[in-house]
Known about the structure:
This protein is an alpha+beta fold and 331 residues long. The protein has 3 domains: 6-76, RNA-binding S4 domain (Structural Genomics Hypothetical 15.5 Kd Protein In mrcA-pckA Intergenic Region, Chain A, Roll), CATH 3.10.290.10; 93-174, Pseudouridine synthase; 179-329, 2-Layer Sandwich (Pseudouridine synthase). 22% of the residues lie in helices and 27% in strands. It has 8 helices and 16 strands. Strands 6, 7, 8, 9, 10, 13, 14, 15 and 16 form a 9-stranded mixed sheet that branches. It has a 5-stranded antiparallel sheet with strand order 1-4-3-5-2. Strand 13 and strand 14 (236-243) form a beta hairpin.
Amino acid sequence: MSTAPPPEPTSEARETVVDATKRGARLDRLLVDACPDLSRARIQALIAAGHATVDGKTLRSASYRVKPGEHIVLSLPPATDATPQAQAIDLVIVHEDDDVIVIDKPAGLVVHPAAGNPDRTLVNALLHHCGASLVGVGGVKRPGIVHRLDKDTSGLIVAAKNDRAHHALVEAFASRSIERSYTAVVWGIPTPSEGRIAANIGRSRRNRQKMAIMRSSGRTAVTRYKLLRVLGGAMASLLQCRLETGRTHQIRVHLASIGYPIIGDPLYGRASGQRRAAPDAVQSELGRLGRQALHATTLGFRHPSSGEELRFESPLPADIARLIAGLDRAV
């Protein structure tokens, strides 16, 4: 250990005191338990960079074995502002005016730059399409972005083109006055055919790439679903899902938690017995799909300037339509 240098400005400090049950635990493991929203890799990087102190002294070893009574502080440095670059990427524009732009996002397009996806994102495309006026709207890290879709979820997404519109849309999402519905193809036939899933969601402690249902922690999450059509006999179903909240992977986690995972979902649907039993024709369509069969079908909101109620719908993309046709042929 060495005396800690003057601390960098931080946006947050996480503190914990080691209790007797944690004697001998690795420092990184202890901090993973204390900070479930941070990945172990992120915590190890922070420790290595000198952002962890034990009883006021900097410690850079993630494998340090903690002792009861030690006061541990993990400092989270402020996010570094990044300026995404404009890149020419084709967009399907459903609506555009001086305040907002609505995009029909294809599967495979990441919404904003992040670790592993530094460019070729929707943000980069919007900067090219909208020009310099978009820079800085809502903060330079994610200019114009007020909500997101997973990389491999297709469908409608709205972005703000100025700070006034950004503020109004953020408020609308916070007050749950935005209409959002999704179409999902799932294994099995949900019972009951219509329902409300209310289960908190947080990051899984077993796999930091996944989200999970939390019994006593996590964030409130509510999804309503409705059976639209049975597919492939009793093999699968077409569902409409409406969001009351917007958590990471919410629909995917919620449907998997009640036993009806989205077909093709690489994180939450792999263990599906229905998938293993599917006939060859369906297996072939699954191979072509290569992603979760989830599409943001409907988006409705009040225009931030005019107050007009806007509502947009997106047809199912070809890959999901082919999957549905393949399931119908399997009957």
